[in-house]
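task queued by scheduler; priority normal; single chain, no ligands, no partner chains; default sampling; output format set to structure tokens
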Amino acid sequence: MTQPLEKLRGDLQMIAEMIEPNSRVLDIGCGEGELLAWLGDRKNVDGRGIELSMDGVRAGVGNGLSVIQGDADTDLDNYPAEAFDYVVLSQTLQATRNPRSVLKNMARIGKRIIISFPNFGYYGVRLRLLVNGRMPVTRSLPDSWYETANIHHCTIYDFEDLCAETGLKIERGVALDNKGRPLPFGARSALANLFAAQALFMLSKT
């Protein structure tokens, strides 16, 4: 039996609720497959996972999940168009080498895209940089600059611009606090870029 929904990371709870039962799902950067396990058990989802870390792959396969080792920057080309109902990328876009290419590939292979990422426009990040003069470390960005995998820092505004440039429609946006809990305003609100520590978007092709 999988863990209860409330035991999943905050953004993963929201993603799990967005996905329809009996769907085909590709989870890119799936870690040990917690989301895939929950979706398979509770929503009868046909799930597949890609994970860069071999430890994550072994854990996912050990739990009976269909997880392979792969890199979002290079391996999405191998998937046929519209092979999945949903393609998920949680807390990983900022760690890819070419976010625009990754986003376009996700749109090619999935009917809908669900993405969550840390918002570098969050006021806590701005204040730490302003007051301390050093790259911030927060709950959403826990690693020091020399240890972090994040190589493309973006704000919610930046992400919305990227969606427009790649011809993607924003169907839903959720603003999240630094614990992954939804805030009372949406990710497209004027407040979100300043007060949301994280954001979650569902996208589709226009």
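post-processing summary
- The longest helix spans residues 99-109.
- The mean pLDDT is 94.
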